[in-house]
Amino acid sequence: MKRHTGQDRSITQNWRPATQAVRGGTARTEYGETSEALFLTSGYTYDRAGDAAARFAGEQDGMTYSRLQNPTVEMLEQRIALLEGAEAVRCQASGMAAMTAALLCQLSQGDHLVAGRAAFGSCRWLTDTLLPRFGITSTIIDGRDPDQWKAAIRPNTKLFFFETPANPTMDIVDLKAVCDVARNAGITTVVDNAFATPVLQRPLDFGADVVAYSATKMMDGQGRVLAGAVAGSNDFINNVLLPFQRNTGPTLSAFNAWVVLKGLETLDLRITRQSENALKVAEFLETRVPRVLYPALKSHPQHELAMRQMTAAGPIFSIYLDGGRKQAHALLDALRLVDISNNIGDSRSLMTHPCSTTHAGLSEEVRQEMGVTEGMLRLNVGLEDPQDLIEDFDQALRAAGL
Ligand SMILES: *Cc1c(COP(=O)(O)O)cnc(C)c1O
After folding, report:
1. Reported CATH class of domain 268-399
2. Is the CB of 216 inside a 6 Å radius of any atom of ligand 1?
3. CATH number of 2-264: 3.40.50.300, 3.30.70.2750, 3.40.640.10, 3.90.800.10?
4. Cβ of 226 below 6 Å from ligand 1
5. For 20-46, how does the pLDDT look when each residue is reduced to its tens digit (9 = 90+)?
């Protein structure tokens, strides 16, 4: 296979993000196709037995089996690595496969990690339920306060794990401050960057070691496939993550990788427009509901920090109603344009009641401490005309008595 001449990393890494998102990682076959080829193959053939032996010995370039390598998946990995400013990336079958691999590949019995309390429900299940079964303990803290990260460090602390902005309360973690604490203590920082994407925030630039993604969200961007990715140094990806990934098999399918490659082409356009739309809708809702939590609004308690480490605030925010679950469900039921759906990152506007859906599996106590109350709703603002969204909310708020 002949590589596109532009794919010399010393050249592509100097492209600006919009160029990388469209062209980064592309490897053309001898047919010279413009759009990335989709390699639906589980295996590969060899001209001679000696070639197979050499490839398995790592002495010959080439692929051996799609759990280990696939040309379409590799294109996506290289594109994400460029966007993220990472030396290397490996993709997984879902965001949770990425999070699980990023943690389990480097933790062992007796290790300790510190994690931010505001987190995706399944990420909390990993730290609170799965890891303790293997003798890996965790301390869950308020990630907004850098001092709490420092205070939670023990002699056996291996890892800091957090998302920012965090799902669904939009807590912001000070990337620079927390990564500095970790670095000084020899601790690895793993950041779940699903809400921001490299368009809005690049955690590696602030000193993070590993960035993990649900590419299901903004990277696909049109609600089609599940995908995940882990970015880091060559050493971490090849020597720590890869042995775990190759042997446990959370591999991304080539078809899903191809869909996400197409999604990345418009990532910058979509996130920029969706952030603009979200701000307009948030400003409207702020005039009608008791509380809107969106980092782009001055009313967000960490507005300045968020705008220092992000270029815009993205499509997602939360609102709080006083009338509990009854009023929250009434608002959802009255929506005509915005869909009731717990997905995010889609080009459609979607709204969910986290307390009775995404965060229903957590205890009431954990929900309270995370700020997931009965009156909270989470909104993903899509690419529709924001005025249509505002009109839909206007009528639905009235139907819900607001
Ligand atoms: C959706 C999400 C995940 C999980 O990703 P999947 O692709 O659904 O497995 C993890 N973290 C955050 C912040 C998410 O929003």
Report:
1. alpha beta
2. yes
3. 3.40.640.10
4. yes
5. 999 999 999 999 999 999 999 999 999
